[in-house]
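Subject: for your reference before the review

Hello V.,

The reviewers asked for a structural picture of the protein, and I figured it would be easier to keep everything in one thread rather than splitting it across files. Below is the amino acid sequence we used in the manuscript, unchanged from the supplementary table.
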Amino acid sequence: MTAYAELMAFQRETEALSAVMGRLGWDQETVMPRGAAPQRAEEMGAMEGVLHARRTDPRIGHWLAAATGADEVEEANLRHIGRSFRRASKVPADLAAEIARVTSRAQGIWAEARAAEDFAAFAPVLEEVLNLKRAEADAIGGPDRYDTMLDDYEPGATAAELGRMFGAMRPRLAALRAAILDEGPHPALEGDFPEASQLLLSAELAVAFGYDMTRGRIDEAVHPFSSGSGLDVRITTRTVPSDPFNCLYSTIHEVGHAAYEQNVDPAYLLTPNGAGVSMGVHESQSRLYENQLGRSRAFTGWLFERMRGIFGDLSTPDAAAFYAAANRVHPGFIRTEADEVQYNLHILLRFDLERALVAGDLAVADLPDAWNERFLADFGVAVDKPSNGCLQDVHWSVGLFGYFPTYTLGNVYAGCLHEALRRDVPELDEALARGDTSPATSWLREKLQRHGGVYRPREAIERATGHDVSEGPLLDYVEAKFRGIHDL
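And here is what came back from the structure prediction:
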């Protein structure tokens, strides 16, 4: 066997074990008994120890030194393995295992603290997680600790670069938000919507957006997510009897993630190229599916009639009012429920706060006050309880520092992709009005999803669109859409 073949045979087993680790996380979020949490923390710590040992196996260094890629696919596999090996080799095995154990335990503590509205109960373990992640970043090294963390999720991105992009976005979004709220929000969709019917419709929508149920499943979770790759890609959603949009659009969002994973070229299964290339590119799929497609005037026209068929007459009298309700802009605390105008303002808040936490400029004990002060300044509303403030997201409990900015970067990528999609598929609205998303999902599969991790994140977007990445298309789309809805 060549060095490349030996390396890939070894990597295939590592990828399979990593998938098992992911399944443990899925189980913990969906069906694991609450009392199993301490044991699960030990199981995940042990599994992480095994994976860390494989990722730092000295033979990988020898194989990498001897291997050459015959084409861009093989070269990409070597790039991914080399990057992972260099990073993992710098992190002590006991630190990697401790991070896995503590974050598994912290997730349960966060959930209980959130339910009890008790930040003080969560603060000690958050401090522990933060210190462990700092130690990990310091072990890996680099000029900026936060950039090292960010590189886990969006290789090649820097906080300075994102800060400039986000700075260009904030004034236009804030001005648009203010103009819309001065006019007052459109009426919301109201009523009682049986949860069983919501779940049936969400499953129908998942299939309509291209989710292959023979290689996936839909479960319920507090915080919807997608898990897995290749032949086993699972999603979760949630239901609120008074708000069917919560369920339906959570499902469409997670299908965007899942479709990306399911549509990667099968030849890349259980290789580094066999998954989405970054969190930002991943988020571009989920946000485009949810917003530019799922909340479009054309698709909501179809959804209006479908929901009337299931739930009877709706509080929105016609398709135009339903479209406005599906895109309703109103003050709110929760990031995952935010509209397209305000969503990125939620992310910018988290981006700035977590950078301050990582740098030591903000103490964990002071996080609630800092959050509440910033939220009041940005949104004009005082946070009423921790679950609506700094306890609303699971991310910091599981150590995902550097993850939040990829949400806004994903929106920027989605704006670029949507502009190119509209250019290439001029008849798109006609199909969406029939509930047919296939012209869009087929375009995305061909232009982006099938390539998996072969291209670097920005390169993947620029190859798909034919243009440099810019925040301009997203801002132009949001302004045109919402000024149209509100006659501004």
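For the response letter, the relevant points are probably these. The longest strand covers residues 232-237. The radius of gyration is 22 Å.

Happy to draft the paragraph if you're swamped.

O.
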